[in-house]
Amino acid sequence: AFTSLGADSNAFTSFTKTNYLFSATDYLLENLDLLDELVTSAHFTEDSILREQDIIQQEREMYQDDPDSCLFFSTLANLYPGTPLATDIVGSEESISQIHLTNLQENFTKFYKPVNMSLFLVGNFDVDQVQDYFERKELKDLDVQEVAREKLLLQDVKPTDSMRMEVSSPKLAIGVRGKRGVSEADCYRHHILLKLLFAMMFGWTSDRFQKLYESGKIDASLSLEIEVTSRFHFVMLTMDTKEPVALSHQFRKAIRNFTKDLDITEEHLDIIKREMFGEFFSSMNSLELLATQYDAFEHGETIFDLPKILQEITLEDVLDAGHHLIDDGDIVDFTIFPS
User: Fold this and answer.
1) Is residue 110 a contact partner of residue 147, using CB atoms and an 8 Å limit?
2) Is the pLDDT of residue 4 over 60?
3) Which of 34, 77, 225, 327 has the most crowded CB, counting CB atoms within 10 A?
4) What's the pLDDT band for 35 if we cut at 50, 70, 90?
């Protein structure tokens, strides 16, 4: 139906939400009707579930063959053993096969309500026309039913682990798990603070990165993943390196002693902030990025608050965020060695 209107539709699921999206050059209101129908009316049968189960299993197997995906989720499983985070978002072979029509209907009835949804539109359209469109619609199930969520019980991490796959060079991940809570209103700002801290320590502008890069111990594959929610938060560094054991020891030691790091200075912080500021304005050219990265926290900031947040952040703020994560946090490493 979306295709018949010239629209491209898709969906994705993160740790905390599912996004349904479309992009189109015309027929905006008609596509909004379809999107509304998609998230407010259940359309699944036992036959459609069986067909989709096969597709999801194939997708899951595809990710299991991807070394970078295995590296990330294996490290995450060792950071959060015995919790839902230890299982891939898509689920396990067993959990996927056990899904039935009743499960989906119960889930849909409980969660797919306007009170749990937010709509974000970006592009060249008539705002008044869209506002009139929604004012004419009748929203159903406006009653708020509190959902009791299980507390994420932290168990002892698995400090180090490894596996073998068909890779040309070893892959290393270092994960840091925070134990202290972060309020929902502070999640986005805390995410930025941790990104600034770890960029100063390990980013391409750091002396550490430059020395390791020039000596051939790491390459441009070094990446940083940060996840901050009110229920859990972690930082993960991943990289290709021919010296995973030595590099893990060096990075873990640097993280534990971050307050003494020579790369954490006012001048370096200013450089990283300017870089993030430039990346922010460059990203404004992507409508898809804006639509998918916008998070409407109940009392918190959004992606559009980034310039203001960056201007207000001080080196002391960054160090405080480091203490919040690292002082009583846990660190693990995971290595994928060539077969």
Assistant:
1) yes
2) yes
3) 77
4) very high
Say which amino acid occupies 326. I
Contact criterion met (CB below 8 Å) for 196 and 318: yes
Q: How many whole angstroms separate alpha carbon 248 and alpha carbon 246? A: 5
Element holding 106 (H helix, E strand): helix 101-111
pLDDT band with cut points at 50, 70 and 90 for residue 90: confident
Which has more pLDDT, 155 or 42? 155
Q: For residue 201, which of 261, 257, 160, 266 has the smallest C-alpha distance?
A: 261
CB atoms within 10 A of CB 47: 9
pTM: 0.89
> Residue 54: CB partners within 8 Å, gap ≥ 6?
none
Distance of alpha carbon 155 from alpha carbon 260, whole angstroms:
29
Question: What's the burial of 180, exposed, middle or buried (CB within 10 Å: 0-12/13-18/19+)?
Answer: exposed
Residue 3 tokens read as 């295709």
- Contacts of 296-303 with CB under 8 Å at 24 or more apart are 296/118, 296/120, 297/184, 297/185, 297/187, 297/188, 298/184, 298/185, 299/184, 299/185, 300/184, 300/185, 300/186, 300/187, 300/188, 300/189, 301/188, 301/189, 302/188, 303/188
Using CA atoms, how far apart are residues 263 and 261, in angstroms rounded to an integer? Answer: 5
- 201 burial class (0-12, 13-18, 19+ CB within 10 angstroms)? buried
* The pLDDT of residue 91 is above 80: yes
What pLDDT digit, counting tens, does each position of 158-214 carry? 999 999 999 999 999 999 999 999 998 899 999 999 999 999 999 999 999 999 999
Other Cβ atoms within 10 Å of 273 Cβ, number: 19
